[in-house]
Every structure is written in structure tokens, then in C-alpha cells.
Amino acid sequence: DIQMTQSPSSLSASVGDRVTITCRASQTISTSLNWYQQKSGKAPKLLIYAASSLQSGVPSRFSGSGSGTDFTLSISILQPEDFATYYCQQGYSPPWTFGQGTRVDVK
Amino acid sequence: QVQLQESGPGLVKPSETLSLTCTVSGVSVDNGDYYWSWIRQPPGKGLEWIGYVYYSGHTNYNPSLKSRVSISIDTSKNQFSLNLTSVTAADAAVYYCVRDAIWRFDTWGQGALVTVSS
Lengths: 107, 118
Prior knowledge:
The structure holds 2 protein chains of 2 kinds. Chain A has no helices and 11 strands. Chain A has strands spanning 4-7, 10-13, 19-25, 33-38, 45-49, 53-54, 62-67, 70-75, 85-90, 97-98, 102-106. In chain A, strands 2, 4, 5, 6, 9, 10 and 11 form a 7-stranded mixed β-sheet that branches. In chain A, strands 1-3-8-7 form a 4-stranded antiparallel β-sheet, with no helix packed on it. Chain B is mostly beta strands. Helices cover 0% and strands 51% of the residues of chain B. In chain B, a hairpin with a 4-residue loop joins strand 7 (69-74) and strand 8. Chain B starts with a strand and ends with a strand. The chains are: A mainly beta, B mainly beta. Chains A and B meet through strand 5 and strand 10 of A and strand 10 of B.
């Protein structure tokens, strides 16, 4: 199985901050990397697919980059509704696997 | 608007079989552009992909669960289903049915909480 490791596991930030989350794969996965946002008690929501493509309806303050083994999710100007947990997921080789999550909370 | 809705018992006894059904609306499960997956999340923990089914009946399961899991599809009812046998407390989780649009999960059900207890 491909292991996905996110860092940090949690971070504290303020509205207006730029936030960056990193995801590393245990082997190369090209650009087969997706990012999800999960709010408490809700199902995850797809934000970014294929490493850098913005899912329809997702605000442009979210962006993704990377290829191979190292990937980044950025939120350019953090909004109140962005406090949540973020997961990366590889779609390169089954079983599809997720990172352990990064919780973004209020500083 | 595409919607997925899980249904099934919220309480399962240890050693018994967990059975859930996902009813899909807004798209046909026999649309060849999509696979249909189940994903679970134990309380306070991360996400685990369980497996998928394609409209043809082709399946792929997570090796960690392969010996106990089966996923089937009923195109006449626009549903797909999950069976997980011999459950233990470790199988307690929120179970999500999910549309898999070529290895990205673009539409999720609201989730079904399953407790394992006698």
C-alpha cells in the first residue's frame, strides 16, 4: 500500500492568514493526488483533484501543487468557514489511501 | 443534483454481518464514468477506503478487509450495497457511500454511524 503522510497534524491560524499543508507519498504517484475538507460531523468534500485542479464550486483561495511524492495544499486568505480538517488521498494505485489529516483551528 | 443516501442498521452485534445500502439519485449507477465506493471513518480517526463496485459488477477491495467484505450493485434499483462479515468493535465507524470519478471521490453520502455491541 502507498502510505500518505501529512504535516503538520494540526495548526492554529487566524482569519486572513495563508495556510500551507504538506502531503508526502511513500512512492511516486505522479499527480494522482486529491485534497478533501471535512467539517465536524459532516462528510468530506473534494477540493482539489489531480494535484492542482480545482473542483467545481470550490473557492479560488484553495490551490494545490506538486508531483511525484511531495504535494501542497494552500489556502491563500483563510476564511472563518475554512477551519476544518484536511485530508490528502492518492488515486495512483489501489488500495486508495488517505493521509492522517491536518486539523486547522483558530489561533 | 446527485445525491447518495446510506441506509441500514445502526447497531450490529459482534461476529455478525454489517449490511448497508446506498441509494443513488441524480445519476444512474450504470453510468460507466463512475465507480461506487464505500469509505469508513472510526470516531475521531481518519478515512479508510473499503472497496468499489463498477456497474458491470467488477469489484476491488482493500486487502485489509478483503476476506470479510463484499460490495454489490443493483442497477434496477439504482443502489449499491456493502456487507462486512464477522464484525468486531474495530469495525465501529461512520460508513460513507461515495461516487468515485476516476480515483477521486467527488460526491459523498451523509454517512451512517454503525455501532458494534451486544
